[in-house]
């Protein structure tokens, strides 16, 4: 009797590959020019300083070279990419006023249901603009600000001007410069001092237009002693052309504050996901990253924490799943810039059917940062002989009074582990199924399953027989 092999199915994308046609009211020409950047700014009626920032970013973009490391980006052709697509609706605060075709997409993804049952506020972006934004009255009474970035630039201009692209300046790398030039959409959150937002806020970014880019900007300020959980969800249908996502996330976690930022990324396999995220963490503050990366053709994503105050802490928890046609280059960066700071990094990745999963991290301890603690654990599981997994940790330690640990594992399912479980009464099929599920369980239990409603459809594992 022929021995069957274990099957670990790809992400079931039936829900996410729904496409809408003719849902945009305007789009700029292909390419990236000064006129296009000025056109985007003019349509948004932005203050002059924002136009200057855009144009300066454009100059920086043309000056900087493409990354010389990581996955190849040769398929990306900016001359044939559309950088701004406006949907056929303005921003609505009443869900019933959102156009039916766009509304039905978000309803299938479960966003309205999640808002009713488990969220304090929701923002929904479609292509280049936010189409729906709402926050509960209780949050408003507490002084919490949650609005779209376009409105924030005008209504909270001094605060935005002080913080916008200060953690992630255009000169950081070419795609942040691109973002600075053509950004559109995104969310602004301000949590006042001492306020505990007990129910999460969520922004969901839906990409629909083929051959285009999405460049939302998220800016969150959690003031002294405040607490917030923010959830970011992303998805797009599959096309036979390259799409680009190059958003930016800037997080300010003030003294004694706490922020958890959870992301579920389920882009289609024609997407290049070149997102940038950074948090500035002050004295005795806590920053948590929870990241699930399941989609895209290529991802380069490394959320960063700068521990800038004594006693600051950060924790990164990540899981990625790379199948055929995917190169997921993910990880994190931590800069210990103050004494008595600590970081914990815990990452899991699975690759199958020729997929490539790379874990990349950088932990830096500056000379003034004594009594630092950092623990790094990254594990990768390859489900066949044609897939690839690498771990590339870098540690730059410039102070001797530190406690640093690192553990990395790459491998396949252990025959010894299978044998051990079989001696405890499990058959071979169940033993292997338990090992695969157990491998990702420490990470997936941290993902906001009860709030990120699309998560239940992201990864379906059906195991039958043996991996080999």
UniProtKB/TrEMBL annotation:
<dbReference type="InterPro" id="IPR055346">
    <property type="entry name" value="Fe-S_cluster_assembly_SufBD"/>
</dbReference>
<dbReference type="InterPro" id="IPR045595">
    <property type="entry name" value="SufBD_N"/>
</dbReference>
<dbReference type="InterPro" id="IPR000825">
    <property type="entry name" value="SUF_FeS_clus_asmbl_SufBD_core"/>
</dbReference>
<comment type="similarity">
    <text>Belongs to the iron-sulfur cluster assembly SufBD family.</text>
</comment>
<feature type="domain" description="SUF system FeS cluster assembly SufBD N-terminal">
    <location>
        <begin position="111"/>
        <end position="202"/>
    </location>
</feature>
<dbReference type="Pfam" id="PF19295">
    <property type="entry name" value="SufBD_N"/>
</dbReference>
<protein>
    <submittedName>
        <fullName>Iron-regulated ABC transporter membrane component SufB</fullName>
    </submittedName>
</protein>
<dbReference type="GO" id="GO:0016226">
    <property type="term" value="P:iron-sulfur cluster assembly"/>
</dbReference>
<feature type="domain" description="SUF system FeS cluster assembly SufBD core">
    <location>
        <begin position="205"/>
        <end position="439"/>
    </location>
</feature>
<dbReference type="InterPro" id="IPR010231">
    <property type="entry name" value="SUF_FeS_clus_asmbl_SufB"/>
</dbReference>
<dbReference type="InterPro" id="IPR037284">
    <property type="entry name" value="SUF_FeS_clus_asmbl_SufBD_sf"/>
</dbReference>
<dbReference type="Pfam" id="PF01458">
    <property type="entry name" value="SUFBD_core"/>
</dbReference>
């Amino acid at each position: 009797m022929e021995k069957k092999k274990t099957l670990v199915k790809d992400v079931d994308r039936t829900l996410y590959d729904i496409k809408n046609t003719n849902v945009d009211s305007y789009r700029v020409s292909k390419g990236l020019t000064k006129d296009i950047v000025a056109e985007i700014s003019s349509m948004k009626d932005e203050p002059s300083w924002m136009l200057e920032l855009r144009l300066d970013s454009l100059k920086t973009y043309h000056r900087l070279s493409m990354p010389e490391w990581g996955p190849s980006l040769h398929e990306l052709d900016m001359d044939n990419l559309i950088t701004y697509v406006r949907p056929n609706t303005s921003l609505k605060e009443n869900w019933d006023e959102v156009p039916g075709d766009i509304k039905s997409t978000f309803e299938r993804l479960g966003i309205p249901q999640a808002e009713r049952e488990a969220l304090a506020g929701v923002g929904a972006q479609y292509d280049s603009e936010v189409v729906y934004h709402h926050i509960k009255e209780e949050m408003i009474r507490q002084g919490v600000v949650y609005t779209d970035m376009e409105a924030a630039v005008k209504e909270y201009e001094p605060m935005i001007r002080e913080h916008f692209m200060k953690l992630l300046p255009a000169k950081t790398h070419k795609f942040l410069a691109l973002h600075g030039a053509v950004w559109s959409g995104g969310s602004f959150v301000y949590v006042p001092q001492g306020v505990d937002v007990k129910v999460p806020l969520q922004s969901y970014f839906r990409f629909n237009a083929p051959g285009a880019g999405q460049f939302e900007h998220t800016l969150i300020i959690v003031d002294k002693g405040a607490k917030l959980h923010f959830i970011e969800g992303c998805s797009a249908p599959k096309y036979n052309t390259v799409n680009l996502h190059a958003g930016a996330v800037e997080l300010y976690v003030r003294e004694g504050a706490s922020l958890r930022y959870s992301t579920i990324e389920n882009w289609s396999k024609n997407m290049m996901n070149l997102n940038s995220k950074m948090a500035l963490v002050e004295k005795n503050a806590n920053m948590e990253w929870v990241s699930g990366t399941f989609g895209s053709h290529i991802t380069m994503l490394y959320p960063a924490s700068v521990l800038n105050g004594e006693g600051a802490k950060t924790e990164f928890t990540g899981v990625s799943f790379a199948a055929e046609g995917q190169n997921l280059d993910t990880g994190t960066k931590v800069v210990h810039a103050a004494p008595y700071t600590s970081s914990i990094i815990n990452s899991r990745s699975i690759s199958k059917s020729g997929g490539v999963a790379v874990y990349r991290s950088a932990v830096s301890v500056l000379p003034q940062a004594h009594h630092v603690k950092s623990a790094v654990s990254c594990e990768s599981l390859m489900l066949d002989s044609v897939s690839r997994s690498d771990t590339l940790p870098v540690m730059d330690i410039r102070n001797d009074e530190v406690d640093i640990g690192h553990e990395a594992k790459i491998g396949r399912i252990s025959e010894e582990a299978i044998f051990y479980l079989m001696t405890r009464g499990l058959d071979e099929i169940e033993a292997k199924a338990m090992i695969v599920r157990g491998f990702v369980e420490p990470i997936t239990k941290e993902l906001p399953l009860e709030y990120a409603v699309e998560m239940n459809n992201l990864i379906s594992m059906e195991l039958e027989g043996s991996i080999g």
